[in-house]
Write a structure and sequence with these properties.
The chain is built from 15 helices and 17 strands. The chain is α/β, with parallel strands linked by helices. The protein folds into two domains: about 5-280, Mur-like, catalytic domain (UDP-N-acetylmuramoyl-L-alanine:D-glutamate ligase), CATH 3.40.1190; about 290-410, Mur ligase, C-terminal domain (Protein-Tyrosine Phosphatase, Chain A, Alpha-Beta Complex), CATH 3.90.190. The strands form three sheets. It has an eight-stranded mixed sheet with strand order 4-3-2-5-1-6-7-8, sandwiched between helices. A hairpin with a 2-residue loop joins strand 3 and strand 4 (about 90).
């Protein structure tokens, strides 16, 4: 084994490949074949999209686990520990499992150079196979068509809402980005699109491939009924469902898409009404409108693009507080900062802007420019948060958002 600790493996992987991102499947596919994992023993659900991927994966995991299935997941990025990326039965894999997987990948790759994310994707497939999971829910990292996760054929694909993000890699409009997301589809295998207004390119690709398509609002829909909701797809329905434990009205759209995925999987993995109820009530996902205990209220959210910022603003507006809303913001410089903050300007009273000590991190000055000179600047998230809390009284709320790094600075 090249290294004995997870940290050593990860540091090495960060410097192994000449570029942080290199989209393409040839190198990953070659190593996967050498590992004998090109056709793993588990059923694959691939989740692509711009927003709602993490929530959808978490709900699928929670419901399938409640139904008694041996389920594994792969998500990215992580908040505090790399192990969070690969979970089995709701628990992260161990350092020892990851080190063993990395050693097998290293031996199989020969002189093939892999990126940090490609190593992680292969490790996820390896770990989930080693653990003997029945079903794996895999979140696409970037795009879909050329993302390493797409090296496996999805038995069912889910495409969540598509928006403009990662412009340098995916394109600058929803139709172009939709082509990349649609790349996770396979001929003859079902795909669920939970985006209520999907790009035409997504629908066209499904038609060209002959992939059975379930569209939100056309093939399935949901209805809110007080503190419960109802899901309907043709002759199938699930009634008197509890609202998901994840906050935000938009989570119902994610949950409805998840139930459609489960309907497609139903012949092999039937799920009872009780399992759906239990899974929706038990689901957890740190950093998605996560409320910390105590006063003033502190809300953590990884929202980092215009679409997710609009969802955050809508949730804040729907849960008004008697005091002010103070925002602690830290973002990456390759995001659409101006459009992201624009969605929240009407609900935020004061801004505390943090320079991001991370690769591609934006400076507080850059954030202030996007806010037309509004806001106080700080060297880091910790300082910005401390200033916001000092200025807040118990009736105010402090919203800390903008990236995974921003949320991790609080949770760490």
């Amino acid at each position: 084994m090249r290294f004995n600790t997870l940290d050593d493996w990860l540091r090495w992987q960060e410097s192994l490949h000449p570029s942080e991102i290199e989209l393409g499947l040839d190198r990953v596919r070659t190593v996967l074949t050498r590992l004998g994992l090109e056709c793993p023993d588990f059923t694959v659900v691939t989740v692509a999209g711009t927003n709602g991927k993490g929530s959808s994966v978490a709900m699928l995991e929670s419901i399938l686990h409640a139904a008694g299935y041996h389920v594994g997941t792969f998500t990215s990025p992580h908040l505090l520990r790399y192990n969070e990326r690969i979970r089995v039965g709701g628990e992260p894999v161990t350092d020892a499992e990851l080190c063993a997987a990395f050693a097998r990948i290293d031996a199989a790759r020969g002189d093939i150079s892999l990126t940090y994310f490609e190593f992680g994707t292969l490790a996820a497939i390896d770990c989930l196979q080693q653990r003997g999971v029945e079903i794996a829910v895999l979140e696409v990292g970037l795009g879909g068509r050329l993302d390493a996760v797409n090296v496996l054929d999805a038995d069912v694909a889910l495409i969540t809402p598509v928006d403009v993000d990662h412009v340098a890699w995916l394109g600058s409009d929803r139709e172009t980005i939709g082509v990349e997301k649609a790349g996770v589809m396979r001929t003859g295998r079902p795909v669920v699109v939970s985006d209520p207004q999907p790009p035409q390119s997504v629908l066209q690709h499904a038609d060209e491939l002959g992939a059975p398509l379930a569209l939100a609002g056309r093939d399935y829909h949901y209805e809110v009924q007080g503190v419960q909701w109802r899901w309907v797809a043709g002759e199938q329905s699930r009634n008197a469902l509890p609202l998901p434990a994840l906050r935000g009205d938009f989570q119902l759209a994610n949950a409805a898409g998840v139930l459609m995925v489960l309907a497609w999987l139903g012949e092999r993995f039937p799920v009872s009404q009780q399992a759906v109820r239990s899974g929706l009530l038990a689901v957890q996902l740190p950093g998605r409108f996560q409320v910390l205990p105590g006063r003033p209220m502190q809300i953590l959210d990884v929202a980092h693009n215009p679409h997710s910022a609009r969802a955050l603003a809508q949730t804040l507006a729907g849960q008004p507080c008697s005091g002010r809303t103070l925002a602690v913001l830290g973002m990456l410089d390759d995001k659409d900062i101006t459009a992201t903050v624009a969605s929240l300007r009407t609900v935020v009273d004061d801004w505390y802007l943090a320079s991001q000590d991370a690769p591609r991190g934006a400076s507080a000055i850059r954030l202030r420019e996007a806010l037309d000179g509004v806001g106080q600047c700080f060297d880091n998230v910790t300082a910005a948060r401390a200033a916001a809390l000092a200025a807040a009284d118990e009736n105010d709320r402090v919203v800390i958002f903008g990236s995974f790094y921003t949320v991790a600075a609080v949770l760490g």
